[in-house]
Amino acid sequence: MASEDARYRQSSQFRLWSFSPAQLAAAREKANILAQSSIAARLASTPNTSAPTSNANTPDRDGTPSLPEFLTPAEEATMVSFYVSELLRAGDHAEVGEVVKATGAAFFRRFYITNSIMTYPPQEMLIVSLFFACKAEGIFPRIGDFVSKFGRDRPDEILAGEYLLCQGIRFAFDVKHPFRALKGASMELRRLGDIEEQRINAAERRAREILNFSPLITDAYFHYTPSQIMLAALSLADRGLAERLISHTFHYVAPPTDSGPGTPMAIGDAPTTRRELKIEDKEAIIGSQIRDKVLGTVEACRDMLAKELPERREHWSNKAVFKAQIQPIRKKLAKCRDPDRYNLVELQRARREQAGNRSDSEEDEPEDNGRSLEKDAAVFGDALPRDTKRRKVVKTEDPFGPPL
Amino acid sequence: MAVSPLIVPPADALHPHPQKTAPSPLKRQTSAVPSSNGTPALVRPPGQDIQTGLSMSLDRVEQMNEQEKRKYIKDRKLGEGTYAIVYLGRSRQDSTQHVAIKKIKKQKEFRDGMAPDAVRELKYLQELHHPNIINLISAFSSKDQNLNLVLEFLPYGDLEALIRDVTHVRYGAADIKAWMGMLSRAIWFCHENRVLHRDIKPNNLLIAADGEVKLADFGLARSFAEPGHRMTANVITRWYRPPELLFGARHYSGAVDIWAVGLVFAELIIRAPFLPAENEVEQISLICKQIGTPTEENWPGVTKLKEYIVPSEVTPVWERSAYMGRFGAVGVDGVDLLVRTLALDPRKRITAHEILEHKWWRMDPKPTRKEDLPRGGGSEEKMGSDLKRRPGLDDESNPRGAKVARKLDFGAAK
């Protein structure tokens, strides 16, 4: 309970929002497929809305009703990255702090793991994410002031998405960032006493620049802990300093095993076993094996961040890139988005109406206790694929390693 | 510690090419993606229920929410206040498992979406899991977009009721030690997780069926601020508010909670509020009179605080011996701990961690086992009234009146 690691495992960031790359890809693919089928069904039920040249009664040559071309998971991923870069620019424009921007980016990315970009409008959701990130970080701006910063005069467009976002991020509002870890690292490096101040400052500055962009626009937060992300950014800024810090932390070298009975370690019976355990503990916590593991992990994270160094900000806001890569997907998206869910204000109104119709029977009233259990089983049986996967993983092998 | 990367990553992340399964958004991976660009057939994936033509189907997140909601049955209303309605509920799977469902009301005066109290409470309860902190079991939204928190059910009221009920509830030093131990562990855990509670008082300490005390009501909580960041001084119910906040300090630490812990300690001993003032000016006077006048000598820099005003007649800080008469029931060491929590200068105040290391815990009497602790006539309705309150505010149902002057300036604390 008391160790920092044990507490990290209790955090919602670990419990709900940490995945292996395979799990993450599967979740996104599922969101994409579900969106496709739901939008297809919706379009098929009301012909002539999006495909004026055909209708449901006139099948295509191959015999299926004409449907728009849907986005692929890869195209969705491109769009999510593009909109995260937009979100960061919006954050700069609104002059919110670095933590708020990072939290907003994390909310946005989390939201679009279980939701498709075809289902809910990213342009609105990025403002919603930024707005709610302010609140999650303890700043409570007036919605009218906030939206006016973006030249919008419809606060309801953003407020209508707030609840949606909260559900999508599973009511977990705390995001753990690597910024404070970086401050700690630079203090730690200074304490070593033999590194030039200038070098530390330059590395810290560059690492901070990286942390303000690279982990936010990649999947780093889903795969790595804040301290791993920090070390990867520091390594990109100054590999020598990062490795120094890691080898300084995991410095333990076990005494030679053939030390023989003459060494004080082996004197006495019970103490021996206790000492040996201690050595094992040390080895497990600050030994060379764990050092190599950490180095490997930091290296993998570094590779991920290296694909989106801060210089790539320019790429994402470049007009030519926009025209060549983003615009075609946006055009496609305009044809395949969910007609019921893209207008958040209308969606909220519809949902409230639905709630109103049923409020007498269900809302705030003790529920009918005689509801059949089979129905429950049906609901519970359809557990989230992620959850089942997680359970499986835990059973076979804790992805985060053995207890320390 | 911040750099201790002791957490090893998911196994997959160790593979040299994690991108293999998570395609880089920059590359149009035409072949690697299984679902092709071609016309998708109208195949519904299993488990997907689409009600075309009828009311809009639920998306995946809404389905998850629905599942969460259906795990609980609301039995009956326990109480209703300005901030929330509290229901007694139970688990659908295990009807012996009772829960409290706190439905946050939409607040008319707050037009900017989800209200700050709800955001804070949910944020911190999601993260803090500890035997002495009220357990958030789940959260879901109801159809009218109200937020519902499913909390562990704590049927035995709160410490305030216990303290007040002098006719029915008797308790002694060992019981006080047990309660203080639980409160101290709760606040240590908050601070260890960089969370300031900012509303510690006896009626936010609820009592579980097994006697365990649980810190509740995180509607005013916040994370420790980054150095230089300003926070509002208008927190913590007045009687428990430390001098630095009364003097308008905008930079403060966990020490604000510790002062409140000290006043709960004092109240447990004398069974009455130790410093019950009618307003903030009187609150400062009471502190000066009962504890000592904050001056540059005992608190360097205090006169620089924006709202520093003290009565002209300076009272020297009272020695430990002066407390023995009124608070001697907890012994010399107990009094020592009390005095350390009530240090005027927040930098000299004992920390939560140091409280847990204090020698009082190791002295006789030993703390009472939690199942043997005295209980009040707590009732289900009591939890209703405890939870429905607006954080930091007492409403009409509480006879202690509006002793809190709390108006948070949400815009200013940038």
From TrEMBL, chain A:
Protein name (record): Cyclin-like protein
GO biological process: regulation of transcription by RNA polymerase II
Chain intervals for the UniProt region annotation (Disordered): 45-69, 348-404
Gene3D superfamilies tied to this protein: Cyclin-like (1.10.472.10)
Family of this protein: Belongs to the cyclin family. Cyclin C subfamily.
Transmembrane keyword on record: no
Stored Pfam families: Cyclin_C_2
One Gene Ontology term of the molecular function aspect: cyclin-dependent protein serine/threonine kinase regulator activity
Biased composition (Basic and acidic residues): 368-377
Alphabetically ordered keywords of this record: Cyclin
Domain Cyclin-like, first and last residues per copy: 85-167
SMART domains: CYCLIN
Keyword Isomerase on entry: no
Biased composition (Polar residues): 45-58
Lineage of the organism: Eukaryota, Fungi, Dikarya, Ascomycota, Pezizomycotina
TrEMBL record, chain B:
Cellular component aspect of the GO annotation: cytoplasm; transcription factor TFIIK complex
InterPro entries per record: CDK, CDK7, Kinase-like_dom_sf, Prot_kinase_dom, Protein_kinase_ATP_BS, Ser/Thr_kinase_AS
Substrates-to-products reaction catalysed: L-seryl-[protein] + ATP = O-phospho-L-seryl-[protein] + ADP + H(+); L-threonyl-[protein] + ATP = O-phospho-L-threonyl-[protein] + ADP + H(+)
Compositionally biased residues, Polar residues: 27-39
Any GO BP: positive regulation of transcription by RNA polymerase II
Pfam families linked: Pkinase
Keyword tags: ATP-binding, Kinase, Nucleotide-binding, Phosphoprotein, Serine/threonine-protein kinase, Transferase
CDD domains membership: STKc_CDK7 (cd07841)
Entry binding sites for ATP: 78-86, 102-103
Protein kinase domain mapped to chain residues: 72-361
Gene3D superfamilies from the UniProt entry: Phosphorylase Kinase, domain 1 (3.30.200.20), Transferase(Phosphotransferase) domain 1 (1.10.510.10)
Active-site positions on this chain: 199 (proton acceptor)
Molecular functions (GO terms): ATP binding; cyclin-dependent protein serine/threonine kinase activity; RNA polymerase II CTD heptapeptide repeat kinase activity
Name of the protein described by the UniProt record: Serine/threonine-protein kinase
Species annotation: Immersiella caudata
